[in-house]
Amino acid sequence: MRWYAHRPRRLGHSVLAVAFVLFLFGIAPGPARSAPDASAARQATVVVAVPVNFPPWVIPDQAGGVTGILNDLWTLWGERTGTSVKLLPLPFDQLQEAVASGQADIGDALIRTPAREARFDFSSPHFETQVMLYFGQELSGIVDAATARGFVVGVAQGDACGEKLAAQGDTLKRYPTHEAMIAAAVRGDIRLFCAQQQVADYFLNRLRKTDAFRHSPSLYVARAHWVVRKGNEALYRQVSEGFDKISAQERDAIDKRWHGTRIEPSALPIYLRYAGYILLALGIGGALLAVWNRSLRQQVTAKTAELERMLANLVCAQKSLDETNAALRQTLNQTVGALTSAMAHRDLSTAGHERRITELAVAIGRELGFDEHRLEGLGIAAMIHDVGQIQVPAEILTRPRRLSPEEFNLVKMHAEAGRDILRDIQFPWPIAEIVFQHHENVDGTGYPRGLVGDQILPEAKIIRVADSVEAMLSHRPFRRAASIDSVIAQLNAGRGQQYDADVVNACIRLIERDWQWLARPAGAGEKHLAHA
Hints:
The chain is α/β, with parallel strands linked by helices.
């Protein structure tokens, strides 16, 4: 089950979706759909939120989909019930919010806690695992939460282990996924982390670091359940009845497939087995050599002709693909530009604001070493970062004075509104999340979520600085434009508070090399910045 398509196709979808937003510009959004009634008919399609990269239950595959125990189990459930199932892999905290908000119908692999019981109806447990503390070989004496006190313990965001350790007074460092947490432990960023045994064993083996870590005795047995929103009795009954149609033998077969089957020892002595392997290998090798000697010339001739045909076809296909991608990118850039132009007409006092921010943001990204693909995504996000302002009354945006607290609170909603407009557009970059975060401060004082430090995407940190610099240098009816020296002073004052220090350093380097392009009209500095 895939959750994103091949990149060229995603780019085409992005163009169509952004164009559709432009077509709908100025039309008030319709009322939100109410949550389904518990007495509604059986659902023909369900969205199941599952933990992201949670082996062996959820494992991403190379094709961009997911495999694992839960994929097989929900696929079988869908076949038995005639229901279409879509898996939605998310970090644990987002998984819970997706079910609570209605983005997903069902959540899986959740541990029962009092706080969660207030929000969800839980099934009976359908798998369990041991939860342990893992620590480096240099440590000893870690047997439970009490003996871990005084250390910083890594936990996955939203994992029940974090709730249990926090309740016992342990100091925690939260990571978005188990994979990110274990990678941090391998790098030495943390010395202890809490994880399910199978999950930790999988990632430590994949990183070839099993010899570098030990684990404590089991802290507790984590019994996992599927859940639905509190009170959704009809869906709960539909899911339960579907699982009743799956036998214990079928469940065991799925578990055995992903946990593996124990290798039974052979009854033959080991030297006889090795002798048999050697004789078998010699016999097969001799037969293959005889066939190979007889047919090699014919095969080489045929393969050479086939490869020449394939090469010619690939050259033609690559040329066609390059032309299609170039046309799609041009259309996407034109559509984004048209959307930005339409936004500017709502507030003529800020005309050119998005393009100046885009030029400065791309220059900062290039100064920080972003590759061209990432710079392209940064430029698009900067160009439409204020798209959510289409839901803010025009008379507030154009008011020639400072806004009242109530008016400013309305304006602050544009970040979330922008995310909602863009969230379903399949860009090759996380555009919706960048737009959602572009008013976050690294010290947690920003909005809308108060994110801190590395929780904020680098692109959002860059747009935060570029937006501020452009605002400082722009004349407004209620204040004058700041001088270059004042801009640099304000950036240094906000370093590590509002602004990321690396982004501030890169921006100041650009200004000190040649600040005069900042005073040019929008677009005039684009060629200069491309080589800054």
